[in-house]
Amino acid sequence: MKKQSTMFFRPLSLLFCAILATGIFAGCKKINSITNPQNPQTVQPETTPVGTPNGTTVSKSIGPSGGSIISDDGVAELIIPANALGTNTAISIQPITNNCPGGGPGAYRFTPDKLHFDQPVTIKFHYTDDDLKSTIADLMGIAFQDSTGAWYRFKDFTNDPGNKVISVSTNHFTDYSQFYILRITPQSATLKTGLSLGVQVNIVYSDDAEQIASGGSGDPSVLPIVDDNNATYSWSINQGHTDQDYGKFLGDATGNMVAYQAPAAVPTSGNPVAVAAHVNLGGITFHGKKFNDTALVANIRIVDKNINSSFDVSVILQIMKTSDVYNDKYLDSASFTVDVNENGATLSNFLNYPPSVTPPSGSAGNTSAQWTPDATGITNITGGTAYHTVTAIPNTPDTIAMLFVNQGITPIWTVTDQFGPATSGGDPVVGAPASFLFGMADSVQHIYFTNGGTLSMFFTVTPKQ
User: Fold this and answer.
1) Closest CA to 239 of 299, 191, 303
2) What pLDDT does 141 receive?
3) Do residues 110 and 159 touch, judged by C-beta distance below 8 A?
4) Which of 69, 71, 72, 129 is the most exposed, having the fewest neighbouring CB atoms within 10 Å of its CB?
5) Is the pTM of this model over 0.90?
């Protein structure tokens, strides 16, 4: 999905308040090019700039026997059947910026450009549960952009919500994207008591019965996409329940965007708060189904704490009897920073320190071992993903869970026995630790893990001032 702007999680700006005061806010939806909805001949497809590359290109040679290729992010997939190509051809999928009206998670350029196939090929887009939180599966489609920049969508396609795959058959290459007739943003958010954020419905128009205006595509299997329609809107908070304060809308709540203000106190129930948009689509038909009143929900969790925090974390890993020759203690360490804000949690400032062994040498019988220092050691954190889990329970800290990207090596030893010296260890292994969990608190935390044997880890979490 498109990254949410952090501006919605701060108090409303003076400009935003001025818009509310003038009443313009209620009418800020974009006017489309449908001059007369009763006359489909007037419909002109939306035109935007062509997307630019913004990801890793995946290429593969596919010949007459067919084959498949999938984008680097696993979203776009192409399946080419046998006899679709006469010769081996270099096929590529390039992620591009998504300028499609109502565009979904990504847009992709399939090349060679304008390549035509002897048999239809299948383009698939894979989506996620999070994608479905912002829209309805029945309002998802597949669009493409022609050489003039105009956007069209396929009238016939297949959507499998169970496997979360939407697909279409085509016989040519161009730029393709998922798109949504209707979508709410943000789909979910965390908001401190008393603060405000904007919730918006994005809508595009494309009716199964429409025809493309003169000068457009003459293909009856594709339909134009227009960047809005004459839908009407109403909004509700927790289905209108009034057993306690769930917040309110600031200004008018009849347009496609509202300003929601959190209550002064965290609700004891009904949290997260459901901010619902009720959209009357005017009876359009999309993919064979007619849509009138349709509801989308943004779930806003209310908290009574400042969720902008930063922590320094240090980790020490200890292994006993590393050499298997004499009793020793292996120590390795690393550190990193955890930053938490309204958009989630991120990891940065990775530092990995050289390990040590105490004592550095020893013997048992006819065998002796000398530890050889290395620059990295087993703990070698090079990246990771952090997850911020919010709790609305008073006096209960949120939690941060992390999965690390590690590549470490085993300690290197020079082992000498009756047969002479030899080097042991040093083979690449997955480094430790692999994951870590802590509760967000204002005090220093010392967290200890052990495998019940020779390995233990010590984490120190220090809030940054």
Assistant:
1) 299
2) 94
3) no
4) 129
5) no
The first and second tokens of residue 129, run together, are 């549960």
The pLDDT tens digits for 114-158 are 788 999 999 999 998 888 888 999 999 999 998 889 999 998 999
Tokens linked to 315: 């980790």
Of 344, 455, 356, whose CA–CA distance to 400 is shortest? 344
Q: How far is CA 418 from the centre of its chain?
A: 59
Type of residue numbered 134: S
Structure tokens at 82: 């046998």
Name residue 226's amino acid.
V
Length of the chain: 465
Name the amino acid, one letter, at 233: Y
Task: Please state the rounded mean pLDDT for residues 223-248.
Answer: 89
